[in-house]
Amino acid sequence: MSIEGAISSLAPYIGILALIIMLFDGGLNLNLVKVLTTLAKASGFTVLVFTMTVASLGIFMHFIFNWTYLEGMLLGAVVGGTSSAIVMSIISKLTIDEEPKVLLSLESALTDALCIVVAIALIEIISMGTMDVRNTGSSIASAFSTAAVIGAIFAIVWIGLLKKLYVKQVGYSLTLAVVFILYSVVELVRGNGAIAVLVFALLLGNFGELSKRLGVQGEFALDPTLRAFQVEVSFFVRTFFFIFTGLMFNLESMRSTALTMALAVFGIILLTRIIGVKMLVFRDRNMAHSEKAMISMMPRGLAAAVLASMPLAAGIIIPYFVEIVFSIIILTNLATAFGIFAVERKLAANARIAIQA
Fold first, then answer.
1. pLDDT tens column, 107-131
2. Which among 2, 84, 89, 149 is least buried, having the fewest CB atoms inside 10 angstroms?
3. Distance (Å, whole) CA 179 – CA 202
4. Which domains does the chain have, with CATH numbers?
């Protein structure tokens, strides 16, 4: 077997590993209570831009490149969200107002899960080969509800065990082992392993806050060392996965057709983001000063790279799908770099003029 063949054969397993770690990391760091109670604006903006991207690409890819609507929507779901890892690192250095920073941070945190959930749902619909909404909906709902219930049970049981765990040094290793067991068990009973891991991580990361709000007796605080280990492991997996995807990326396959399609998709992504930001600014004029920065903040990353290979792993063959996704990752990151550089340069120039005046 050639090196390229060996790498391709490992792709589904590496992708699932990265997906599990990413979902676990995202769930631990996502504060649902804060999002739902105080930052509804960020949630609305996130859903708006994501929905417009998915719907627009579904229509565009069908009429221009003869894909089915579902295949176009699947592409939209895969590339519809910003990368939390990239956004968070850039946000801390920006000189824009605090409210847009919070909104962009929450958008990046929410879209990782949103991309995964919607993409997995569309993959299941396409795999069934039917548009029977009732049967398809019930099958997906059954898989997701089964996963959510099992994930919640695992989380509650494991939280109880963590309270009594005497060997704290291996707490993270045991927790990660439980996550992999959970994924396997849920997949075995025809549930959705990814949703189960996300629910498990959300409850584990937010149980202390939720128990206080619900008045449940018995405090629980996640061990700081567990979070610290997760940061290290997440960094390693992200780095390794991007190296792996780089090895998978075949420049010879980037023909003119794939590049043309990728540029067209990038144009749709940029257009939907501009419309979304314009609508947000129309409703809240306080965001107007940060409009260009919010439009520029559109990098795609690990979620898109992980999901790119999942359709093929599920037996769904879509022409140039992987090449388009990888190209979008490169194009959106370049656009973000140049856009943010231009915005910060203008802000610095305005600040100098204000000082001189």
1. 887 787 778 778 888 888 888 766 5
2. 2
3. 12
4. 3-245+261-356 (1.20.1530)
